[in-house]
Give the backbone structure.
Amino acid sequence: FRTRAPKLPNDMFQFLSDASNAFLKIFRRELENVMKNCKVDGPMSTMGPTLIVFHETQFTEVLRDSFQCQKTAVEQLKERFEKMNLSYDAYSSIEYVGTQTLGGNQTDFNDIKATITATLENNKIRSPRRLSVIFKALKVT
C-alpha cells in the first residue's frame, strides 16, 4: 500500500483491515484444507500475504524505529490498527518503509525495492515449500 500523505490516514487502516477480512473470508476454507493436507502447523496468518506500507511525506517526518517512544514503526502501525479496533489477522507480517521527498525531488524507491526483495527472499515466516506441497495446494483449490 502506498500513501503520499503527511500522516497515515484512518482510511488506509480501514482499507487494509477490510482487505485482511476479505482475504480470510474468501480463502479460509482453502487455507484450512492446504494446512491440513500439507501438515502445516501454526496460525492461518502464516499462509497469508505480507503487508508493506510505503509512506512518502514531503514536509513531515516518517515513522521511525524510535528509542524515545520505545516502539518500532511496525509496532506503531499495529497499535493504530488496535486503537481503531481493526483486524490485520490475514497478514503474515507487516513491513513499513518511510521516505521523505523534499522540494519536488523524485521519489527514491531504493528502500521499498530492498524491502520487497528481502520479503521475497525471506524464509523465516514462510519456509520454502516442496513441489509436492505446492502441487497439493493447487489441486485442493
